[in-house]
Specification:
The protein is mostly helical and 199 residues long. The chain has eight helices and no strands. The protein has one domain.
């Protein structure tokens, strides 16, 4: 429970701090420079997220705080930030969806009595990750389409959007497959979980 509260509290505090210290409009180049600093701090790049939950949470908190404190940012920067934030939210959900390791999927075998709840919860979280990922892809396509010069300066193309879309489609399909397997093979356990309000 405490872990779930840490990110919202951190985001709230960063918004307050940024809001008190930064009240001017930020241009695209200046904003990208700041984002690059955040990326460097958490071992990320424009195209790759941090490799840990803590890193994703930290970078997400910095970007959300930066965006909230700079409401008058250049429109191209706002669209780019929208992409980065949604992409990190999708990554965070994806990591959360694998919190049970091999027990998060049906790929390595499963038992209905112990595995049903885990796999169903995991598949729902991973599916939510894919949906958030599609939002990120939409924001990236908008950024590339509406601001081609800025996108080119960051080496972002429609190929990147297609790659991300394919990755999220694969996540969605795998999550749905796991869910269907449990629903069809573990009917008794699924019914019991429904009655208990667990799923």
């Amino acid at each position: 429970m405490l872990n779930r509260l840490i990110l919202p509290i951190t985001l709230f505090l960063l918004v307050i701090i940024y809001g008190c210290t930064n009240q001017r409009t930020v241009g695209f180049d200046e904003g990208v420079k700041k984002i690059n600093e955040f990326d460097k701090q958490f071992g990320a790049t424009m195209k790759t997220p941090p490799n840990s939950t803590e890193g994703v949470d930290g970078l997400l908190a910095q970007l959300v705080g930066f965006r909230a404190a700079n409401m008058d940012v250049d429109k191209s920067l706002a669209t780019f930030l929208d992409f980065r934030i949604k992409n990190l939210e999708a990554e965070r959900l994806h990591i959360e969806g694998w919190q049970w390791g091999k027990g998060s999927t049906t790929d390595y075998g499963f038992g209905c009595n112990k595995g049903s709840e885990r796999v169903i919860n995991s598949s729902r979280i991973r599916n939510a990750s894919a949906q958030k990922g599609y939002e990120a892809v939409e924001a990236l396509q908008s950024f590339i389409g509406n601001y081609p010069k800025e996108a080119e300066s960051l080496n972002l193309t429609q190929k990147d959007a297609l790659f991300l879309n394919a990755a999220y489609l694969q996540i969605e399909e795998k999550a749905n497959r796991d869910y269907r397997i449990i629903i069809s093979l573990c009917k008794e356990q699924v019914e019991s979980l429904r009655k208990e309000g667990v799923i």
